[in-house]
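Re: [ENG-882] Designed sequences occasionally contain unexpected residues at chain ends

Forwarding the minimal case from QA. Structure tokens:
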């Protein structure tokens, strides 16, 4: 199924209240433990798939200094921004190294989008919810 057919199939099979779902890419485009960047309706998105096969769609902007997370690395269920090594779990929470000393006191956010796989494609609900990045120390 090509992108246009996937979109038509999806639109037919959803109610009118679901008209904010937008096609992003095909499921096969995002292998486990990879990330790619896309622009959908003017929004820069990172689409990444964790090791368990779940897809995540976030704003493609690291909350540290704004570099693209789509250039990052996915290991297991974490995505790492390669610029300065900030790592995030599937909930958008930053995972800190035990050895790190906290120098950030202000809140930072990742914009996390609702997404789903349907008709061999990945779809995004374009209104993001904000996830506050807390500074919780966890085991690396
Ligand atoms: S910009 Fe991502 S860790 Fe610094």
């Amino acid at each position: 199924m090509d992108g246009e057919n996937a979109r038509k199939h999806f639109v037919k099979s959803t109610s009118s209240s679901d008209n904010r779902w937008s096609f992003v890419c095909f499921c096969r485009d995002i292998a486990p433990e990879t990330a790619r960047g896309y622009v959908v309706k003017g929004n820069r998105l990172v689409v990444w798939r964790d090791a368990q096969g779940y897809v995540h769609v976030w704003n493609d902007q690291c909350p540290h200094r704004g570099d693209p997370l789509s250039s990052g690395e996915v290991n297991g269920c974490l995505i790492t921004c390669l610029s300065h090594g900030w790592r995030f779990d599937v909930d958008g929470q930053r995972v800190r190294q035990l050895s790190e000393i906290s120098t950030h006191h202000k809140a930072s956010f990742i914009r996390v989008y609702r997404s789903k796989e349907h008709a061999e494609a990945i779809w995004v609900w374009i209104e993001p919810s904000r996830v506050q990045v807390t500074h919780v120390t966890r085991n690396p």
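QA comment: On inspection the terminal residues look reasonable. The radius of gyration is 16 Å. Proposing we downgrade this to a documentation issue.
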